[in-house]
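Title: Comparing notes on inverse folding

I've been comparing how different people in this forum approach sequence design from structure. To keep things fair, I'm posting one structure and asking everyone to reply with a full sequence. Here's the target:
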């Protein structure tokens, strides 16, 4: 039911040390270890559920990216924020390509793709979860792929997006290779992930919501993301902040720490995290990496 990685996914080192023990706050209450590579400092959940078994850790009504209904106040806040960020994301990709062809990997229920379609983009999506994929198909009236191997029949695109998805993918290097093959020569890949060097990560430690074990298999810093992209012949062109994430992550982390939500303290810590990031190498709670060949 679980597998233990014997080599670092980034540098293939076999030298690890225990970094932190975190609990699955969302669903099971089980504890999982996060391992640190002694050579490249990459953090990854280890041991972790087998790929064929990990779906059970997503079967929660509160897992908002696979649902359309807000089941509590925290998720309602998320959905309100998502409404505003969708337009910002489309504005961003509009600056990166005139061809307007996009693949959204891990598209969830399809809200981002639908917004893209309304703005004239030719859309492609991939979502492994059956329920979320069917919702995306219904919304966009387009075919949504279920497996990455199905992309072999798809044309190359000018933009590939992974919005808080890369940290979930079991076969990290295989997926990166497949996605690179689908990217135009001058295309851009946008990867949004939590940042372990943010202030909110330091404040909440094992209760930092963005560790989200065991759904998050990898935990990136700018250093390790740069190494991953370099390994696949990609380089970072820009790094952009996701400033709203610090507030949402702090809201969840506060609940995990104290057993209840504290909107005032969450807002203060989210604000502090963004101020810290301005002074410390843009280490925001989550960041968007824009990469290309």
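Reply #1:
Here's my take.
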């Amino acid at each position: 039911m679980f597998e233990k990685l014997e080599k670092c996914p980034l540098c293939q080192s076999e030298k690890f040390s225990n970094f932190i023990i975190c609990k699955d706050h969302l669903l099971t209450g089980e504890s999982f270890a996060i391992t640190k590579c002694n050579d490249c400092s990459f953090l990854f959940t280890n041991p972790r559920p087998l790929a064929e078994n990990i779906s059970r850790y997503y079967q929660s009504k509160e897992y908002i990216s696979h649902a359309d209904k807000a089941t509590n106040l925290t998720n309602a806040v998320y959905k309100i924020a998502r409404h505003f960020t969708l337009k910002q994301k489309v504005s961003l990709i509009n600056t990166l390509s005139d061809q307007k062809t996009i693949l959204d990997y891990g598209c969830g229920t399809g809200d981002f793709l639908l917004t893209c379609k309304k703005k004239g983009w030719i859309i492609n999506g991939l979502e492994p979860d059956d329920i979320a994929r069917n919702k995306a198909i219904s919304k966009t009236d387009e075919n949504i792929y279920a497996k990455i191997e199905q992309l072999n029949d798809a044309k190359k695109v000018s933009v590939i997006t992974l919005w808080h998805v890369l940290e979930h993918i079991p076969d990290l290097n295989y997926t990166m290779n497949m996605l690179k093959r689908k990217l135009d020569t001058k295309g851009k890949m946008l990867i949004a992930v939590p940042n372990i060097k943010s202030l909110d990560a330091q404040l909440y430690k094992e209760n930092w919501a963005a560790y989200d074990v065991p759904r998050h298999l990898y935990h990136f810093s700018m250093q390790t993301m740069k190494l991953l992209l370099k390994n696949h012949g990609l380089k970072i062109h820009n790094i952009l902040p996701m400033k709203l994430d610090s507030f949402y992550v702090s809201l969840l982390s506060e609940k995990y720490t104290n057993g209840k939500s504290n909107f005032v303290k969450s807002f203060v810590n989210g604000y502090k995290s963004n101020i810290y990031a301005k002074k410390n190498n843009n280490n925001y709670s989550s960041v968007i990496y824009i990469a290309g060949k």
